[in-house]
């Protein structure tokens, strides 16, 4: 079974631009979660999508948004990029049990650098 | 507000000895905890989990202990091997609130 894939793996943008990251979950998984990893903050939860609906949301500004398609693939969008948005963005998929008691499988991440 | 905390950013252990990684949480509603291991340039990989109805879960060299009254969990790796050198994250419940991670280095 193929793992979680994320594209692109590396991205360089400038302040003020917007970016879209893509995540393809493991086949059969309906839940996709997004995380931001920075050296000082560790892994921070952005949001979770399940069956095309946002089921959980972290404490990030509205510049961070996402969506999920009928095939469970998900995209994350960041508008008006700031220098502090430079991070590794990870997506994780799971079968999506209610209550969260299901193992999440992570993709390799997209390294975003904002100049 | 850091609901899951790993207070040791790094740990160095001799090969063959026991590695103990610690994690504290503040939210008593958390009922499921996981440990993830992360190598550079890769996403985290699941290691072991524990439900709040248990106080211990063992899988080979890895054992997770949960002390609900102290809101504390720990991961024991014994014996430690050089391939265990990685960053370890503990995480809690549904939307996976992660700790900041502990970088474990196993010295041959």
Class inferred from helices and paired strands of chain A:
mainly beta
Tell me the total number of β-strands of chain B: 11
Largest sheet of chain B: 6 strands, mixed
Report, as a whole number of angstroms, the end-to-end distance of chain B. 38 Å
Instruction: Round the Cα radius of gyration of chain A to an integer and report it.
Output: 13 Å
Low-pLDDT parts of chain A are none
The helix-strand sequence of chain A is EEEEEEEEEEE
**Coarse morphology of chain A:** globular
Strand content of chain B: over 45%
Overview of this protein structure:
- The complex is a heterodimer of chains A (115) and B (108).
- With 115 residues, chain A is mostly beta strands.
- Helices cover 0% and strands 52% of the residues of chain A.
- In chain A, strand 7 and strand 8 (74-78) form a beta hairpin.
- Chain A is globular, with a radius of gyration of 13 Å.
- The mean pLDDT of chain A is 91.
- In chain B, the strands form two sheets. In chain B, strands 2, 4, 5, 9, 10 and 11 form a six-stranded mixed β-sheet that branches. A five-stranded antiparallel β-sheet of chain B has the order 1-3-8-7-6, with no helix packed on it.
- Chain B contains no helices and eleven strands.
- The termini of chain B are far apart.
- The radius of gyration of chain B is 13 Å and the shape is globular.
- Chain B is mostly beta strands.
- The A-B interface holds A 4, 33, 35, 41-45, 48, 56, 58, 90, 92, 99-101, 103-109 and B 6, 31-32, 34, 36, 41-46, 49, 51, 89, 91, 93-101.
């Amino acid at each position: 079974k193929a793992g979680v894939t994320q594209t692109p793996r590396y991205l360089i943008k400038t302040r003020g631009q917007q970016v879209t990251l893509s995540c393809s979950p493991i086949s059969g998984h309906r839940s996709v979660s997004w995380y931001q990893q920075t050296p000082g903050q560790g892994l921070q939860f952005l949001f979770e999508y399940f069956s095309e609906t946002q089921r959980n949301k972290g404490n990030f500004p509205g510049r961070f948004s996402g969506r999920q398609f009928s095939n469970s693939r998900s995209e994350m969008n960041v508008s008006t990029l700031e220098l502090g948005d430079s991070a590794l963005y990870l997506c994780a998929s799971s079968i999506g049990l209610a209550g969260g008691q299901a193992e999440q499988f992570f993709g390799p991440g997209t390294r975003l650098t904002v100049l | 507000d850091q609901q899951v905390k790993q207070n040791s950013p790094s740990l160095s252990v001799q090969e063959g000895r026991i590695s103990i990684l610690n994690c504290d949480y503040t939210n008593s509603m958390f009922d499921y905890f996981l440990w993830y291991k992360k190598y550079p340039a890769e996403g985290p990989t699941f290691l072991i989990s524990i439900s709040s109805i248990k106080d211990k879960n063992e899988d080979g060299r890895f054992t997770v202990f949960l002390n609900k009254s102290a809101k504390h969990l720990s991961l024991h790796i014994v014996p430690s091997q050089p391939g265990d050198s990685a960053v370890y994250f503990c995480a809690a419940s549904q939307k996976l609130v992660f700790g900041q991670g502990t970088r474990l280095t196993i010295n041959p």
